[in-house]
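User: Okay, second chain of the day. Same drill as before: sequence in, structure tokens out.
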Amino acid sequence: MFKASEAPQGQFLDSNPDDFLKVVSENYAVDESDYLSELELLAEPRDMAALSQQATRLIQDVRKRDNASDSIDALLQQYSLDTQEGIMLMCLAEALLRVPDDETADALIRDKLNAAQWDKHVGQSESALVNAAAWGLVMTGKVVNLDKRQDGTPGTVLGRLIKRSGEPVIRSAMLQAMRIMGKQFVLGRTIKEALKNAKDQRDRGYTYSFDMLGEAALTRTDAAKYLADYSNAIAALASDKYQGKSPKPTISIKLSALHPHYESAREQQVLEELSETVLGLIRQARAGNVGITIDAEEADRLELSLKLFKRIYSHPDTRGWGDFGIVVQAYSKRALPVLCWLTLLAKGQGDLIPVRLVKGAYWDTEIKLCQQAGLEGYPVFTRKEGTDVSYLACARYLLSEQTRGLIYSQFATHNAHTVTCILSMAGDRPFEFQRLHGMGDALYDTVLEQNSCAVRIYAPVGAHKDLLPYLVRRLLENGANSSFVHKLVDKKVPIESLIEHPLTSLRRHASKANHRIPLPVDIYGSERRNSRGINLNIMSHWLPLKAELDKHMGARWTGAPLVEGKRLTGESRAVMCPYDLSHQVGEVIWATAEQTHKAIDSLAAAFPAWNATPVDQRAAILERTADLLEKHMPELMAICTREAGKSLQDGIDEVREAVDFCRYYAVQARQRFALITLPGPTGESNELYLQGRGVFACISPWNFPLAIFLGQVSAALVSGNTVVAKPAEQTSLLAVRCVELMHEAGLPGNVLALLPGDGKQVGSVITSDTRITGVAFTGSTQTAHVINRALAARDSAIAPMVAETGGQNAMLVDSTALPEQVVKDVVHSAFTSAGQRCSALRALFIQEDIAPRVMELLKGAMAELHVGNPFERSTDVGPVIDQEARDNLNQHIEIMKAADRLIGETPLPPGLNGHFVPPTAFRLDSISQLDKEHFGPVLHVITWRNNTLDKMIDEINATGFGLTLGIHSRNEDTALHIDRRVRIGNVYINRNQIGAVVGVQPFGGMGLSGTGPKAGGPHYLLRFVTERTRTINTTAVGGNASLLSLGDGEP
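Assistant: Same drill. Structure tokens below.
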């Protein structure tokens, strides 16, 4: 952990910036309480009482001003509808600007202004209320309790609104509402308009940093558009003839807007391509005397941003300038180390670096991503007070002697107490404050009058339809500050409540970390640990993993049937790498029919003892297996890549899912196998309990060779069955290594027989054996039918079959959806794992009104995918499993191309020697044109009109498959209507449709897609067991003492 308290003394100054970047990375997710203890020493004021007095005077002065209230209040009073209704209408404004057809727009209005819906969400944390907050409720200080309005419930207000106006009138009112929001938070639609609108504030001494609205680029076309916007803005600022006392305006640029793959996995490509792009802007800006600041982004991009910043900063075209700056987010645990790293850069080169210190804008996303990824902690603080303490600690360092002449500090805040703290620390150091356009006017008017420091306004420029993502970030970054702004000017709020130092607030808590936000490992409670993940975007995670992976990438593995804990002998077969056909991964021995029969003999004999083993012992073996899987993750990832062609991230996810299955089924078994005492007449004991069935067969696929294999096997074993397991022919080495780890965890060798082999020698022998009491199968629907018929043909007890089979998975997108989010989710759902997931998207249904934009984005995004060696971080799409799969997919692709249905195709790089199929998208008229599932990176796109939604649903249902469905709509009524009507096992709304998590999204289909129950769900184990009831006449040995005792002591 970085010794933050020593930073102002400069102990780090002898370090090399490249070496110190490792120190930055190692602070990614350090223990929050320990690190805050370090930061507290820096944030401690010299005189807290004096600070409070200064802050009190500042707030008193602000409250005396004429412009203390936010200008939006005045605007709303002029609005044609009453203020409460106007606020609610603003929640709709941005969405409706993106909806091209009136019918869908009116449906969205009915949905969002439906009284029952608002009432339903009152008091909830996410969904409608948060969306409403983003659109004016919080930003304008109107977050009152919706269910305590003076004129009744939200339903009353909204019902009156609809009744009075009707949807078309409301639709027209949206544009007016949007204009109001636009004027409040966007300085101008173009840079020229922004400069014109900025004149009054510049005359008063303010200056500006302009931000061109826009999100991360998905395509080269988008990146080129944003580059042109930045270049035009620089040109306008360079030619600006304004003469005044305020400093010259600057421009903020978002790196992810300038490259379609701004991510660490593409580090070399990004550093080469994006540095040239930004240097072009630097040359233009330097010639025009316009400063440039690199905006902050998500935590995963921080280290890449720093590397890029260093490359550009040290370039000859930037040297000697001193106007190339960067933003640092104080909510990050790496914030102070980053400031020290920037100091090292500036000290080495001698050029001033402007640094804007902000609170941070992606807090909720960082928390969620870390929980999903199973990381060791969070890169951000979990309490607002923690972020505030970090901000003050960073400010103390920025204003210390170590940064004099090296860093120009820019403090972005709307908090009067923070402003007071900065002023008290600054001494003779030059610095500036920054605020957002539309917020904090009165505060900074007062600061400007009373102090000599500069104040810069951060002002977005662009079309109103691009405003939402910006506002959501500002809402999160200033959630507390926005309310502070309104409390600041609200004379009913006591000043004492606004001047408490964050150290005082933080120390009031029993724990510095927020215990209500559990660490990622603890999100499932005390009974089950979350599986441990690795963040490939963080150097301190990636480099140690890569070193371990490199040890295994040249290794060879051997596999053989494992029966009674011993390897059997036989003829070995070479296992070749699917992405490099010249490379042998290892060799495996396949089982014979005779060995299969003998293995079942052994398993049948072992069943009684294993079934009698206490469930707690069986569950403990699974939990120890999970721990070993985590310990051996690099090796298992290496086999996943070399034998199955999986990407590195897929390998991490594969191991984590296997771990989750083991831990989840261990918990479920302990709960389900508990003895249940049933009510009944006195003198009698009635008990219900579960036992294993006997010898259970598990037949697993090659696309999840570890996760599904172990999911089936662990469920059957913990339920008391002995297991004969047949892994996929293509991925037997991984299964062998997995079983070896289970034995190491304490699994008796005689309760699990692993039999690699083909269907003739192993599969058909297993399913025809009368001692097999059940089958768990994942694979094609056709093979499931074959197994089902084989089981039915036996003259023996009826055996249950748990089958998860094929799918013709669709995604329905209406015109309320965000095209950029749709395309991200489509590309992820259709092409991750080379499209070889049961859940992968096959048929995309787009409402025709937005189809052109979605198709354009999809084609551009596909062009940016990298196909190749899955061991490389930069690879997006690896190989398909074997030559047969490749031939079948290429045949379908050629047929579709011949029919002139091609939308787009990812280019294959030259020199590949593996089973590669390019990601490809085709147009279809109907999903019925697909006669089977094409299991690979091939997407089919169908457009539909807004009045044919039910017809599309009928066509999807008519395929007979029912595995996964994606829905993209911001109309909740539409999403719920689709969900009610489809016959689909897993429905995903406004996200991708792959990556089901054990115990969170139990997975399995219906119809031709499977039998259920869902894997990773609470009902799965029940298919592996038999129920027994035991009734005992407790009076048979002499009377009913318990009944007689009931009368004792009664009057």
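The chain has 37 helices and 28 strands.

User: Thanks, on to the next one.
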